[in-house]
Write a structure and sequence with these properties.
The strands form 4 sheets. Strands 1-2-3-4-5-6-8-9 form an 8-stranded parallel barrel, surrounded by 5 helices. Strands 10-12-13-18-15 form a 5-stranded antiparallel β-sheet, with helices on one face. Strands 14-17-16 form a 3-stranded antiparallel β-sheet, with no helix packed on it. It is α/β, with parallel strands linked by helices. Helix 14 (339-351) links the parallel strand 8 (317-322) and strand 9 (354-361). 28% of the residues lie in helices and 17% in strands. The chain has 2 domains: 6-16 and 40-388, Glycosidases (TIM Barrel, Alpha-Beta Barrel), CATH 3.20.20.80; 419-500, Immunoglobulin-like (Sandwich).
Length: 501
């Protein structure tokens, strides 16, 4: 890939498929992708994955007053920055802090932070073993964030092999995932990067290496209509796919459209799925995900980042959330979602055909902060007790019941506490599972399971997962009444297996 031209990379999909006409190809159209895309069972069955945001922002000195993931943009001020312009006072505090901590921007720019990102304690084998123990079935490290720095052996000069850690992190993540039997995904945020560094442009000099880091060859506000940029994006993305063969490809940003980008977005997506189909005799084994709420969700797996579904979605989707509060590590940052709420939100998503992706914001040295481990430990405890009703499960005909109303869509992530009346359902192998999303203090009443209600089969028995206690219950006209268990093995949730006949 080091010497691959743009034209060669754009044609890579067609070259790959030469001589393999026995497997039908998905055409580079949304209609064709929607008609042929199938979410693999490993993703829907696995239910829990871990995202890793880690890179240059992770190693910035302690004490910065704001932000985690957008430091590279905000440190240069609000000029030309749409997101930064909404928070001028916060941006000014961060800009002043950078000047006082590192020096003036003309003397110490974002590129000068790279030597501080050394990853001296990063051990992917231990980290993957840790998240597997938590219950994760797949990982998804960030390959390139908005800051245009590749975390792998890249043809782009700004990368983690030539700079910073001097390691091919994607290669090592993938090896660790394979060793521990987890699926391996990647996430790229590259398409944001020309606009991301708009306010840094005035500090750049033509002919320097930094010129390419700050995307000086592309219009920061009109790059989506530049063929040179869209082709560059395709090359960088295809390089990841070809070199690391990920089980999941998440495009966490816009992409070249049919109108302004010559359809290179849909071409990349279909080339990725076609590559997998050709290598697996026509059976899809990969997941394609992104955040475009206007695209046909039958054509991909929708990433409802920091969002929620109000009802059961017809297609599997992904609830992606962050444990750290800032996506990338920043000391002092805290998640505004309490641990019990996050566990409940995960079950709510799963009951609505969702899959959970928890982001860990590693420190610059490559370790997990203690406050994020608190969340991971809570998920470990929940999955160890209740995993049988989660892994391999599917939504029941009704997702659940209770007073907490969940808003639909991205950006509507619930932060309110769950109560005993909030209950969610899954089904697997003929058994129905009911999760009470707060520790019960009195008898549990599940109105949905009242006599003559939605439950068409007869209840044979009820068991509290993780306990041998005999569960006392009765079905009435008002609901299924379960006597409050004496012992509750779950810290935040009580999960019941309901055997039907």
């Amino acid at each position: 890939m080091k010497n691959l031209t743009i034209k060669q990379a754009v044609c890579a999909g067609a070259i790959l498929l030469t001589g393999m006409a026995s497997v039908a190809q998905i055409e580079p159209t949304w209609e064709s992708l929607a008609a042929n895309y199938e979410v693999p069972d490993w993703f829907v069955d696995g239910k829990l994955g871990v995202w890793f945001h880690w890179g240059i922002p992770s190693s910035i000195k302690d004490g910065r007053p704001h932000d985690g993931s957008h430091y590279g943009a905000w440190m240069y001020g609000t000029e030309g920055q749409l997101s930064a312009a909404k928070h001028p006072e916060a941006v000014q505090r961060l800009t002043d802090w950078h000047d006082q901590t590192y020096g003036l921007h003309a003397e110490f720019g974002y590129e000068d932070l790279i030597p501080e990102f050394t990853a001296e304690n990063w051990d992917p084998d231990t980290l993957v073993a840790t998240v597997k123990d938590v219950g994760a079935r797949f990982i998804m490290p960030v390959a390139c964030h908005h800051d245009n720095f590749d975390m792998y052996d890249s043809s782009h000069p700004w990368n983690s092999v030539d700079m910073g850690p001097k390691r091919d992190t994607l290669k090592e993540w993938k090896a660790a995932a394979a060793k521990h039997g987890l699926k391996f995904g990647v996430s790229t945020h590259l398409y944001w990067s020309p606009r991301f560094f708009n306010s840094a442009r005035k500090y750049q000099k033509k002919g320097t290496l930094a010129w390419s880091l700050f995307n000086m060859d592309y219009d920061p506000m009109g790059y989506s209509g530049q063929d040179s940029w869209n082709e560059h994006w395709y090359v960088r993305c295809w390089e990841i796919i070809e070199k690391y063969d990920p089980d999941m490809f998440n495009n966490d940003s816009p992409y070249p459209t049919l109108k302004s980008g010559n359809g290179l977005g849909i071409k990349l997506f279909t080339d990725y799925v076609n590559k997998d189909l050709q290598e697996n005799n026509g059976k899809q084994g990969v997941v394609l995900s992104f955040k475009d709420s206007k695209a046909n969700k039958a054509a991909f797996t929708y990433n409802m980042e920091r969002g929620s579904a109000a009802q059961i979605e017809p297609e599997p989707w992904m609830w992606a959330t962050d444990l750290s509060g800032t996506w990338f590590y920043r000391d002092g940052a805290r998640n505004r979602m309490p641990v019990p709420v996050m566990v409940g939100n995960a079950i709510d998503s799963i009951s609505k055909n969702g899959v959970v992706m928890l982001n860990i914001a590693l420190k610059g040295d490559g370790t997990i902060p203690d406050n994020q481990m608190e969340y991971l430990n809570a998920f470990r405890d929940f999955m160890q007790v209740n995993g049988e009703g989660i892994y391999g499960s599917r939504p029941w005909k009704i997702f659940g019941e209770g007073p907490l109303v969940i808003q639909d869509g991205r950006g509507n992530e619930n932060t309110a506490l769950w109560c005993q009346e909030d209950i969610r359902f899954t089904i697997k192998g003929g058994n129905l599972y009911a999760f009470v999303l707060a520790p019960p203090t009195e008898d549990i009443v599940i109105k949905t399971f009242a006599k003559g209600g939605e439950l068409e089969k007869t209840i044979e028995s009820i068991h509290l997962m993780g306990s041998n206690e005999r569960i006392v219950w009765k079905q009435t006209d008002k609901g299924l009444v379960i006597r409050c268990p004496e012992a509750q093995p779950g810290l935040y949730v009580s999960g019941f297996r309901i055997v039907l006949n």
